[in-house]
Amino acid sequence: MDLLLNFLTNILTDSSESTERAIDATLIDLRSEAPVEWELDRRYKNIHNDGSYIYRLMSLHLVINPNGAFAIMKTNKEILLEQKSKGGRTFTFPPHLNFHT
User: Each residue of 67-88: b (16+ CB within 10 Å) or e?
Assistant: First the structure.
């Protein structure tokens, strides 16, 4: 898990699309470092009114804001990583998403 978070911490983008592409590329790179094949589960994609969307990342949730900022959290709502966008904008939880406890 630490290796995954270390790889993802280096991602700084300015849109949800570029964040998604960067995460895909990083997960492919991670396969050479770890025996686990991480990938975004595109069958489970929820799009919210503010433009944020959520994928399942194994047993984790990946929430990407429209500005490129993102967060990874466990299904028990424990936040593992909050990453700013390239422009320095912080991650914000989409409305009606009750992950913050």
Answer: bbbbbbbeeeeebebebbbeee
